[in-house]
Design brief:
alpha/beta, Rossmann fold, Arc Repressor Mutant, subunit A, 5 domains, 7-stranded parallel β-sheet, 6-stranded parallel β-sheet, 43% helix
Length: 713
């Protein structure tokens, strides 16, 4: 029996009559079978591959057959823009069978919310943060609203899993699952993820249903790839404008400043340009999305000028901007997953190939883009790291549960939190220790045996009825950039600052190049010196990127081979050969990848930013009075009497198990790390929790140990 025949007759008729479909795609057949059989599922399909219908048709069919009392299905997206983008489509699918959908997020007006609460729609579309608001709000009868909830569909699940927002969502879903009389069915949708089984296990939480990964074979598709090298951003944007002539394009950039510069150059070249990033107004972003989605060809491409949305990662997720001719990329994204997500915007029309053109300003970006392409050709995609000691969200959820319903007992809180995979690695003893700290520090207090909001948390989060408490993330923290003499030059966001390296990194600000002298985290200042004339940008160009081990190792492999890649233009191929000529001699001696240059020793590890940062602290422990700096591919050392022989001896000592098994040493390292502000709940953390959170963000002793063992073995 086909899945289509198992759908409600009313839905079958609507699919044929209203949508004009004569069959379902393979992913919809397989997903429909799993969901109609009652399984939890992770559904994988390319962008525009039919994932939404694969999850929503069985969901809608079940609600047609058995009308829910209140909300029957939740559709959750990581960003409001994706909800708004899907609202019309899911509104059509529900309306054509006599059901309703409602969109609830921060921009939904109060009158609409009151109307929904009085007469709930069967399908609720929302964000994790808005779900939290509903559970805490005195106006919402959550038991009535979610008492008959059957299924939750999480779009772009890879953007949430392994993050604080994902841990938050799982905790909120467990709270909602207790309200429903059903074993809540859970479905995750994604285009690219390297470990779908782990994501499925994470998604299941306390559900007792069986689980299934739906990943039908992908039909072979044509891809058109090109990597070009242009040594200046102005030349890069000019050539991109030429390529965009007469076509609809997305141009992804790695920073907002690059986005603005590229957009200005393309406008001067006659291209119709829209800008889309987090600092652009909501109205401007919506204008770009809607103009492209509803068709822009007649207005802007008939004269050959073309139309392009120049954007950051804000358009990487599944926001539909219609059929595109080209995806352009300034330099290279951090991951294969991002590359595939972006390329998946093209190739939707019959006869069209999915395509991406990388416009690389630096030789390092040429190498990085080539590595991403080669890994993708091998079928490799990053695994989403799952976590089990997510302290910031544990504290957040204790506060929100203490706020809801007049408080919660310590045992109730533990029972709930133990069902959340992201907290599974935190022991009962550690949990009790945290509660004692929060009670002593004022984050919580006890009233009649219940945990309630304490004075410190109320002072920090109590404004505007605790609205700031409902989201686990915080507004970006700014650092002031100053000269050595203390002259302010501007500001940088913490996400950018987190990737800067003292004495190594350089960046553009105010149209000039600056070299980082030191970063002062306590008062959030970055001290800089003017970049010497002709100084090359540090690794990753002017945007330091935290790259993973696999990408960096592939870059190393590309440098140590002689393979020619047909998708490199003449200039890109030339700069790759130049880098090969510089690197290959360093790997032909016994001290592989070690050289002395300009009074410093360099170790070309190609191990990625996190492993290299960890190696830094290990080397400082065994090497003596050396100054160590790192980036994604390189460990640099300066110091009195440093030689390749002494450095190699230090590496061999570092490879011994004693360094990595010394728990006290790594506790001391954690205490020495800069006071990074990673969570708005850090003020409520005891020192021992804060040190673990910061160390986990910056370091990975296990990964570094394994890499070093394999390298030295």
């Amino acid at each position: 029996m086909s899945v289509f025949s198992r759908l409600s007759p009313r839905l079958q008729e609507a699919i044929v009559a209203r949508l004009g479909w004569s069959s379902l795609r393979p992913v919809q057949e397989q997903a429909g079978e799993a969901l109609l059989d009652g399984a939890n599922a992770v559904i994988l399909a390319p962008t525009a591959g039919g994932k939404t219908e694969a999850s929503m048709f069985p969901t809608i069919s079940e609600m047609v057959e058995s009308a829910p009392d209140g909300v029957g299905a939740l559709y959750i997206a990581p960003i409001k823009a994706l909800l708004n983008n899907q609202a019309e489509r899911l509104g059509l699918y529900t309306e054509m069978v006599g059901l309703r959908r409602f969109v609830w997020h921060g921009d939904t007006d109060d009158a609409s919310r009151r109307k929904f609460l009085k007469e709930p729609a069967e399908l609720l579309m929302t964000t994790p943060e808005s779900l939290e608001v509903m559970l805490v709000s005195q106006r919402v009868d959550e038991a009535k609203l979610f008492g008959d909830l059957r299924i939750v569909v999480i779009d772009e699940v890879h953007a949430l899993a392994g993050s604080d927002r994902g841990a938050h969502l799982m905790s909120v879903l467990e709270r909602i699952a207790r309200l429903s009389r059903h074993d809540l069915q859970r479905v995750g949708l994604s285009a690219t993820v390297g470990n779908p089984d782990a994501i499925l296990h994470w998604l299941q939480g306390s559900s007792k249903r069986s689980g299934q990964v739906v990943d039908p074979p992908k039909p072979a598709s044509r891809r058109q790839l090109l990597v070009v090298h242009r040594p200046e951003l102005r030349l890069l944007a000019r050539d991109a404008a030429r390529m965009a002539q007469g076509q609809k394009s997305l141009f992804f950039c790695q920073s907002r400043s690059t986005t603005e510069k590229v957009a200005e150059t393309m406008r001067r070249a006659g291209t119709t340009v829209f800008v889309h990033h987090s600092a652009v107004s909501k109205e401007e972003r919506l204008l770009a999305e809607e103009t492209f989605h509803r068709g822009i060809n007649d207005a802007c491409t008939a004269d050959g000028s073309g139309a392009c949305i120049v954007c950051t990662s804000t358009l990487e997720l599944g926001i539909d901007v219609g059929d595109l001719d080209r995806v352009l990329q300034a330099d290279a994204p951090d991951t294969v997953s991002s590359f595939l997500q972006r390329m998946g915007r093209t190739g939707r029309r019959d006869g069209q190939a999915a395509n991406t053109t990388f416009f690389c300003e630096s030789s390092e970006s040429v190498l990085q883009a080539t590595a991403l392409i080669e890994l993708a050709k091998q079928g490799w995609v990053e695994a989403v790291p799952v976590q089990d000691r997510c302290w910031p969200v544990l504290i957040h959820q204790l506060l929100t549960m203490a706020l809801a319903g007049g408080g919660i007992s310590q045992e109730e809180a533990l029972t709930h939190l133990s069902n959340v995979p992201d907290f599974a690695g935190i022991s009962r003893a550690e949990f009790d220790r945290l509660i004692r700290w929060l009670l002593a520090d004022g984050g919580l207090r006890q009233a009649s045996g219940q945990l309630v909001i304490g004075p410190k948390a109320e002072k920090r989060f109590g404004r505007k009825n605790f609205m700031e408490l409902f989201a686990v993330f915080t507004s970006p923290v700014s650092y002031t950039v100053v000269t050595a003499a203390g002259q302010p030059l501007g500001s940088l966001q913490q996400e950018f600052v987190d990737r800067l390296v003292d004495g190594v990194s350089s960046f553009l600000l105010g149209g000039r190049g600056w070299v980082v002298q030191r970063i002062q985290h306590d008062d959030r200042r970055v001290f800089v010196d003017p970049a010497p004339r002709g100084k090359q940008p540090t690794w990753g160009g002017y945007i330091p990127q935290f790259l993973g081990l696999e990408v960096c190792q592939k870059m190393r492999d590309l440098l140590l081979c002689s393979t020619a890649f047909p998708y490199l233009d003449e200039q890109a191929a030339a700069v790759l050969e130049e880098k090969r000529e510089a690197i290959q001699p360093l790997f032909q001696s016994a001290r592989t990848g070690i050289e002395v240059r300009d009074g410093e020793l360099r170790w070309w590890t190609f191990a990625g930013g996190k492993i290299n940062a960890t190696l830094r602290y290990g080397l400082e422990a065994v090497g003596g009075d050396w100054k160590i700096t790192t980036d994604n591919i390189l460990v640099k050392a300066k110091g009195e009497g440093i030689t390749p022989e002494r450095f190699h001896d230090a590496i061999e000592r570092l490879a011994t198990p004693e360094i990595w098994d010394d728990a006290k040493h790594w506790r001391d390292v954690a205490q020495s790390l800069p006071n990074y502000r990673l969570s708005k709940f850090q003020d409520l953390m005891p020192d021992w929790v804060e040190q673990e959170v910061v160390a986990d963000y910056l370091l990975s002793a296990l990964e570094a140990k394994n890499w070093l063992t394999n390298t030295m073995g």
